[in-house]
Amino acid sequence: MPKGYWVAHVTVDDPAAYDAYRQANAAAFQKYGGRFLVRGGEARVAEGAMPGRTVVIEFPTVQAAHACYDSPEYRRAMALRLPCSTADLAIFAGWDAPDHD
Length: 101
Description:
Elements: E1 4-12, H1 15-31, E2 35-39, E3 53-59, H2 62-70, H3 72-81, E4 85-93
Antiparallel strand pairs: 1-3, 1-4, 2-3
């Protein structure tokens, strides 16, 4: 079963208010097994443009990734994020490469 991933580009307008969202989202990510792979940080844009900060969160399954986004825990956190940032977020199923001997 493939892992699930949230991939987001986020523009933060109010860093102090956004910090409250970051603290609140921890409960949902812990409950659904979310693990940050990329959380902003330094980036070299090699082609095109990357709006805002990039965030990549890995989940044990794509179902867990969807369940986390739809959960009451994340919805409470998202209510804190919406007034202080804009985001493009997609949920992906990871690629399970076939085994080659």
